[in-house]
Automatic annotation (TrEMBL):
<dbReference type="InterPro" id="IPR051013">
    <property type="entry name" value="MBL_superfamily_lactonases"/>
</dbReference>
<dbReference type="GO" id="GO:0046872">
    <property type="term" value="F:metal ion binding"/>
</dbReference>
<dbReference type="InterPro" id="IPR036866">
    <property type="entry name" value="RibonucZ/Hydroxyglut_hydro"/>
</dbReference>
<keyword id="KW-0378">Hydrolase</keyword>
<keyword id="KW-0479">Metal-binding</keyword>
<comment type="similarity">
    <text>Belongs to the metallo-beta-lactamase superfamily.</text>
</comment>
<dbReference type="GO" id="GO:0016787">
    <property type="term" value="F:hydrolase activity"/>
</dbReference>
<protein>
    <recommendedName>
        <fullName>4-pyridoxolactonase</fullName>
    </recommendedName>
</protein>
<keyword id="KW-0862">Zinc</keyword>
Length: 368
């Protein structure tokens, strides 16, 4: 089984980034069980939010659609959905965030800049594609625009990108973004980094887990693609950090051990983005018209519906979603739902009956 050529200890001395957020501590260190950690998540989230909104706002946030693809309903809506459709559709989107540091230097962060072409070779999706006839696949998958195409449209040069951030590294192949140290047979050479200055901001916990994957994790990672990625391409962080005015990375473990969420302070309040859930209504399922969600939430006494393709630590993921729920402000379009922007958002399709979302954000846009 191909793996990282370096262990997590090899990145200990790499430079890190941001200002640590003392308000959000490691919930795993909270005395007691997962219920005690859930209560702590609510308290810490409220405390952090009060501090966070005083840090300012970024200059701009722009949404860029990358790909719409099928995803198993039993994963995306966990045990709650009563839809007859085995698959739903999700749209993976990139956010482009720009701000100025206190010294006046401009910064560009790409959140979820997936290399859609290479992401197809993730074991789970690769096997799914092999079982799906081409004519059906063309109906189920829509590629919208590439990362570089979006940057060109926005007038951002690739060399101006400072940071690359994912909520977790499922499906991600980073070689074209940050380059490699050796020839890559499948890429026809040794690729020069297309984002030459960009560093990948990632939790040390995820790097540690990827160094030796568990069988529950293997369908979702491409560890062999990291074999020749230089360790210096990463900016490993531990916990939650403030990156810039109104821009924070909050550790939200559970979906993977080193999961993290992007938190933004915009003109409409606080937004949170991750793939912990696939629809805003999964944070307030009592208001959902999706078949089964409201009833399931009521009968089981669970206030959120997880994106559960990878059950690494389910109780921790639940607690992390409640933390995200505590941070996000109500939507100005419909206050029953929160300003939670799924990095892969549930998207209605006629081929997937019973999976049309009650409410969708589709874009997250901010200009200061």
């Amino acid at each position: 089984m191909a793996s990282f050529p370096w262990s997590a200890t090899d990145v200990v001395d790499l430079p890190t980034i941001g200002t640590p957020v003392d308000t959000l501590t490691d919930l795993g260190a909270v005395p007691g069980g997962p219920g005690a950690r859930l209560a702590a998540a609510r308290r810490q989230g409220a405390d952090f939010k009060r501090e966070f909104v005083t840090t300012g706002r970024p200059d701009s946030v722009t949404t860029c659609d990358l790909v719409t693809l099928p995803y198993p309903t039993r994963f995306g809506l966990f045990r709650a959905s009563r839809s007859v459709a085995p698959f739903l559709s999700i749209t993976n989107r990139m956010l482009v965030i720009r701000w100025h540091d206190t010294d006046g230097r401009s910064r560009v962060l790409l959140f979820e800049p997936s290399d859609v072409e290479l992401g197809k070779y993730t074991p789970y999706f690769d096997r799914l594609a092999q079982r799906t006839p081409d004519v059906l696949a063309r109906r189920m998958v829509t590629e919208h625009e590439t990362v570089l195409g979006h940057l060109a449209r926005l007038g951002i040069a690739p060399e101006d990108v400072d940071y690359v951030l994912f909520d977790h590294l499922h499906t991600q192949d980073l070689r074209r973004w940050v380059g490699t140290t050796a020839h890559q047979d499948d890429l026809g050479g040794r690729p020069e980094p297309l984002l030459p200055r960009a560093k990948v901001v990632v939790q040390r916990d995820e790097l540690a887990a990827m160094a030796e994957l568990h069988p529950l994790q293997r369908p979702w990672y491409q560890p062999g693609t990291y074999r020749d990625v230089p360790p210096g391409a990463f900016l490993p962080i531990e916990g939650s950090v403030l990156l810039g005015p109104g821009v924070a990375v909050v550790k939200t473990p559970g979906h993977v051990f080193g999961n993290q969420s992007l938190v933004l302070h915009t003109s409409t309040g606080v937004w949170v983005s991750s793939e912990n859930v696939i629809a805003a209504e999964c944070l307030t399922p009592e208001h959902s018209r999706l078949p089964g969600l409201a009833r399931w939430s009521r009968e089981w006494g669970q206030e959120v519906v997880l994106n559960a393709n990878s059950l690494e630590t389910t109780a921790d993921q639940y607690n992390s979603v409640v933390l995200e729920k505590t941070l996000a402000d109500p939507s100005q379009d419909d206050p029953r739902f929160l300003q939670f922007f799924p990095s892969s958002e549930l998207t209605g399709a006629w081929t997937n009956p019973g999976t049309n979302p009650t409410f969708s954000h589709r874009t997250l846009t901010h200009t200061s």
